[in-house]
């Protein structure tokens, strides 16, 4: 019984990993086709994401988005930020 449970869990893990990779590939392809990374961020949380008086965003969320853009395009400026409400952050992806 224990071996059966372990085999089932292992099979489920492999299936989950394979399906996640297919989705990740589709998302990456869509981002590359657009030519920029679109990041959903919260606005007004200093340290995470915050727009200054000039509208320039800063914070760790912004840095992560810039890092993704640098990894995908070799240019950390190919990012568009979309401020999201707390409710929107639950059902929208962080990067699309």
UniProtKB/TrEMBL annotation:
Keyword Signal: yes
GO cellular-component term (any): outer membrane-bounded periplasmic space
Keyword line: Signal, Transport
BP GO terms, sorted: amino acid transport
Taxonomic superkingdom: Bacteria
Domain Solute-binding protein family 3/N-terminal: 38-89
Pfam families: SBP_bac_3
InterPro entries in UniProt: Bact_solute-bind_prot3, SBP_3_CS, Solute-binding_3/MltF_N
Signal peptide segment: 1-24
Listed Gene3D superfamilies: Periplasmic binding protein-like II
Keyword Transmembrane helix on entry: no
UniProt family annotation: Belongs to the bacterial solute-binding protein 3 family.
PANTHER family noted in UniProt: AMINO ACID ABC TRANSPORTER PERMEASE, AMINO-ACID ABC TRANSPORTER-BINDING PROTEIN YHDW-RELATED
Protein name: PEB1
Natural source organism: Leclercia adecarboxylata
Gene that specifies this protein: peb1A
């Amino acid at each position: 019984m224990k071996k059966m449970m372990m085999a089932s869990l292992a099979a489920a893990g492999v299936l989950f990993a394979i399906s996640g990779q297919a989705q990740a590939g589709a998302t990456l392809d869509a981002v590359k086709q657009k030519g920029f990374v679109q990041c959903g961020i919260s606005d007004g949380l200093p340290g995470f994401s915050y727009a200054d008086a000039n509208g320039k965003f800063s914070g760790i969320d912004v840095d992560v988005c810039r890092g993704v853009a640098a990894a995908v395009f070799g240019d950390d400026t190919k990012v568009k930020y979309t401020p999201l409400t707390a409710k929107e952050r639950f059902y929208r992806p962080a990067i699309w």
